[in-house]
Amino acid sequence: MPELPPTRLTFLIRDLGHGGAQRQLVTLARALAGQAAFAVSVVHFYPGPFEAELRAAGVKTHCIGKKHRWDLVGFFLRLVRVMRGLNPDVIHGYLHESNLMALLLKPLCGFPRVVWGIRDSQTDAATWGLLGILSFRLNCLLSGWADRIIANSRAGRGYYMRQGYPAGQFEVVPNGIDDTRFRPQTRETFGSTFAMVGRLHPMKDHPTFLRALARVPEARAVIIGSGDAAYTSHMQALAQELGVADRVEWQPARDDLAQVYPTFDALVSTSAYGEGFSNVLGEAMACAVPVIASDVGDSAWLVDDPRWVFHSGDDLELAEKMSAFLSLDPRERSWLGQKNHQRIQQNFTVTKMVEATGVICLAEALERKGVQRATETFEAMRAGGSFAGAPGVSPTSNGSTPPQSSDRSKRVLWITTGLGTGGAEMMLTQIITGLPAHRHTVISLTSGGKYVEPLRAAGAEVLSLDMPAGKPTLGALWRLFKFAWRVRPAVIMGWMYHGCFAAVMVKIFRLGQGRVIWNIRQSLYDLSLEKRGSALVIRSLPWLARFARVITYNSKLSARQHEALGYPAAKTKLVPNGFDLEKWSGFSPSQESRPAHPPRIGRFGRFTAMKDYPTFLSAAALLVKDEPGAEFLLAGTDVDDRNTELTQLIEQLDLRSHVRLLGERSDLPEITASLDLAVSSSAFGEGFPNVVGEAMASAVPVVATDIGDTAWVMGDTGRIVPAKDPQALANACRDILRLPAGQRHELGIKGCQRIKEHFSLQSVLSEFNTLLTNY
User: Fold this and answer.
1) What region holds the Glycosyltransferase subfamily 4-like N-terminal domain (predicted)?
2) Where are the strands (E) in 4-51, listed by range?
3) What is residue 450's predicted lDDT score, i.e. its pLDDT?
4) Which residues of the chain carry a pLDDT beneath 50?
């Protein structure tokens, strides 16, 4: 490929004053300026302190010097002169005023590509008067003329699409947090200080924080930020009125937050509106600080733990969250902070933001220059060093979708029963996230689910038939055919039984177009244990298997059981589940670093007959006779205090003081790593038990029932016992807990090594990539 000159990229922004949007622009401009593929400049209307930082990094800056609000003609002429001199290939506007100006400049500067930047989750235009409202309405009317629109939050994308912004040009690239600057620091003591950081403005909703503080008398607060003097005085007066003034320390805006964040016990964000992607939350999380946030913008997605998210404006709920945090012991606080740090590192780094934005801007520039297949050209440039410094991070890691090849062989339609909590749903999400080269559309037969947003963040289109569970409707069938015809997939992936059945319906409807691959995700001991509708589908699939090119199973036992029922053995392909070692082993402490504590045993999984919680609890009751301090952690859907069947069983077995019901959790890697022993008590139905592999990947010893391929997965790294035998389960647990700590640790390490060698996520991704490409 002939060498191409650098892309001339000009950022356009109103000012370079202190603010989250300005900080992100500076971070992005500095990083892209260090790439050979770009020649970066920044044009701003008003001066600001960040200008010096940009110049120090070698970024050209041009201040137009808008003199006052009505300096319009002279200002615009000066702006045109500067922009024509820069002759950009791409103008990247930041915030609404600059976005409009970028569009006006387009015909006057050689028709560069225009990328708009959206940095909020809803407008506050009304607070800026008539001109603010007019500017917002013009943005809505003219948004279709932008070549690409980048929002930093999914909430912002959704809001502006509802205002008329075009979905086809809209991408989401979350902010990047500089994890080289915002880093964890060793903490010796733990206290009760909650902090708020941000400008003093009604959007931040300080009153809710102060009222919650008044409800938690043992808590103290630090409020950092500057703003309107009248608002500040009003907030300080409110603190006096609520009787918390002596517990609140007020500080002006600071530029040393990287050093300040780690001194907080927890950070609180109470934003009432407008927050897209909260830099303050991200920075604190990168510093391994626990956070509590209102459900505004993408804060709930960023925090990724419903325990620490409250409804905006609800000071009572916030107070309950603060009290719950103060009740945590130091170890739990540390794990919470570590989880936050890992989430930022895995999803929201500067590197990922820079590469995702770079893909978009470079692709726009290449299309302007008439270079075809822009994404492939970008990859070639990166491989050749023209985009130096970018590690092997998928451009879609942050949810942005780079321009795709029109090659139909990469269109994949996944049809699944649902996207709620479960191992099959999690595996589907991991596969799609790990194969960004393909264009993924997911149709869920039922609505909603835990994995809808993670799939969208990975760049997949997610559609729902909104079908009641187990009750197909004509409307759902019509939507299925309509979606499938629009997608025109090259591969139709049926996921679980009902998804496989629907995949065949799509194949027939599309007159044979598209390869069908079935994916069976469970073992099959007794059809009478299945629901009537599921059993009917399972029996019908052998008759429909002629339409499937391949049938994948995630366990050897599952394959044999289904083949015995008539599923064609010639089409069988074994693809066991894979585990992300970086995710599951990232929190495993060394044996030396584990503090002494009573044995902690975990059983994770949704509350169903398949998981057989009664056998586990019966074994626990036997075990506490020898281990009176034993603690049992139970987590999963419906595994909480609202489940009367479960709580009554715990009371009957006199285990109330030993059992903690955690419900559905998003921090299972951390919780798993804290265990001395993990248990799987399943009675039937398991094909390849994820909970066993996850514990092994976390270097935690496992005791499990002999169901599905559990014995194959574990090898000789744990203990296998018969199903529905509480005594055998208790004996096996006791045997492992009585091992010397060093031997128990070695057993866990052995399990982790087995996962690494035989069941890595990368090997699964390779298998599925081959399926999608070659079969």
Assistant:
1) 19-181, 422-578
2) 7-13, 38-44
3) 84
4) 1, 372-375, 378, 381-409, 589-595
Say if residue 630 is in the same domain as residue 533.
no
C-beta atoms surrounding 592 within 10 Å? 8
Cβ(292)–Cβ(317) below 8 Å: no
One-character DSSP codes across 85-144 = HH--SEEEEESHHHHHHHHHHGGGTT--EEEEEE-BSS--GGGGHHHHHHHHHHHHHHGG
Question: What pLDDT is attached to residue 759?
Answer: 87
Q: What is the CATH number of the domain that holds 607?
A: 3.40.50.2000
Cα(375)–Cα(394) distance, integer angstroms: 12
Which stretch of DSSP H or E encloses residue 441? strand 439-444
164: left (phi over 0), alpha (psi -120 to 50) or beta: left
| Shared-domain flag, residues 234 and 119 | no
Whether 722 and 767 share a structural domain: no
The pLDDT tens digits of the residues spanning 458-475 come to 888 899 888 877 677 888
Question: What residues make up the domain containing 737?
Answer: 581-759
| Rounded distance between C-alpha atoms, residue 481 and residue 505, angstroms | 8
Question: Is residue 297 a contact partner of residue 278, using CB atoms and an 8 Å limit?
Answer: yes
- Cα–chain-centroid distance for residue 192? 29
- Residue 673 neighbours by CB under 8 Å, 6+ apart: 335, 587, 588, 589, 698, 699, 700
* Structure tokens given for 732: 């096996």
Q: What distance, in Å, lies between the first and last C-alpha atoms of the chain?
A: 31
Q: Evaluate whether 359 touches 395 at the Cβ level (below 8 Å).
A: yes
Task: Please state the domain count of the chain.
Answer: 4
Query: Where does 399-551 have alpha helices with state H?
Result: 423-434, 452-457, 474-487, 496-509, 532-544
Sheet holding 60-63, edge to edge: 60-63, 38-44, 7-13, 90-94, 113-118, 148-151, 170-172
Residue type at 710?
A: T
pLDDT score, position 656: 92
With the C-alpha atoms ordered 727, 733, 736, 738, is the resulting torsion angle positive or negative?
A: negative
**Dihedral of the alpha carbons of 363, 367, 372, 376, in degrees to the nearest 10:** 0
Residue 522 C-beta-side C-alpha neighbours within 13 Å: 23
